[in-house]
Amino acid sequence: MIASGGLDGTVRIWVDTDEEETIGALKLEDEAAVNGYALDINEAGVNGDGMGGVTYENGAFGFEHDTPRDDMSVDGGGSSDKEQPEAQKFNLGTLKVVKADFNIETMSGPPALADINTLAQTNPKGFLNDYYDDEGWWALGWIQAFDVTQNEEYLDTAVDIFNDMAKGATTPCGNQNQPIWWDKKKTYVNAIANELYLSVASHLANRIPSNGTYLTSAQNQWKWFQESGLINAQNTINDGLTTACKNNNGTVWSYNQGVILGALVELSKATGNPSLLDTAATIATAAIKALSDEDGILHDVCEPNCGADGAQFKGVFMRNLRLLQNEAPDDEIEKFIGANAASIWKAQH
């Protein structure tokens, strides 16, 4: 089943059958006209599987099927500014859920979407949505594209994204040095969004040294992060903060131990301060100790059912660990990287 947000403000929901069948259309301009509108897709379903009814009431879709499905998606339309000039005015909408174990599940289609507003965001320049961590990943991706191509448009895109991320610095958990929210609904202050904010700022500081704003932002963000309590007594990083701005003792995920490494490598370059690499090495060593089995293989506690987001966490850690290893070589870390690469190879062959 696909929910598609059109540029005309219409949301169309249909199922894939032998011949694409449009089940219904909801006009967003007039909510009153669609309240109580029901879409019955029991007979068509997805892959012949009955899905139950779909309703729209007071700005929200309701779906009777209660488990996420891999064959569901939301199409916000368009893939690039050049291919479709209007595309980036309506970005792909997502809904994220923080689960009980602090794993984050990203959902881009029913039955997860609870708010019709998540289907389309209007007026951004592009690659923005309701979650600052998503924006951070995009910014780092565009910076890497700039590094490869030296195309200034890619760097400009990263700057635009960073400027939007900076608008999230309205949390109650900082004074002079202000962290950012995880989401634009201001529900959670977590490690990953703030690590990505630090990393993007540090990357930009190295690529646009003429603008001191990025270095200042990076230094202030790192000072806050050190003082926030997110780094626990074991030198690993918990998932986030409580509403009282205290460490929530959330799961020690591998990606939270990883992004900070790459951020500190970049900040070390920007400041010329090698002690930041020592701090990164301390976090890396603690993470390896906390998250590895007796054979030295990295694991997350969600395995083997980590979802689409959690399945990527270890890769994030290893990518950033390699960045640290390139700048501050360590024999034990090199062995760890090699052992994990060999484990993957063995599992695939």
TrEMBL record:
<dbReference type="Pfam" id="PF03663">
    <property type="entry name" value="Glyco_hydro_76"/>
</dbReference>
<dbReference type="InterPro" id="IPR053169">
    <property type="entry name" value="MUG_Protein"/>
</dbReference>
<protein>
    <submittedName>
        <fullName>Putative mannan endo-1,6-alpha-mannosidase</fullName>
    </submittedName>
</protein>
<feature type="repeat" description="WD">
    <location>
        <begin position="1"/>
        <end position="14"/>
    </location>
</feature>
<feature type="region of interest" description="Disordered">
    <location>
        <begin position="65"/>
        <end position="86"/>
    </location>
</feature>
<dbReference type="InterPro" id="IPR008928">
    <property type="entry name" value="6-hairpin_glycosidase_sf"/>
</dbReference>
<dbReference type="InterPro" id="IPR001680">
    <property type="entry name" value="WD40_rpt"/>
</dbReference>
<dbReference type="GO" id="GO:0005975">
    <property type="term" value="P:carbohydrate metabolic process"/>
</dbReference>
<keyword id="KW-0853">WD repeat</keyword>
<dbReference type="InterPro" id="IPR005198">
    <property type="entry name" value="Glyco_hydro_76"/>
</dbReference>
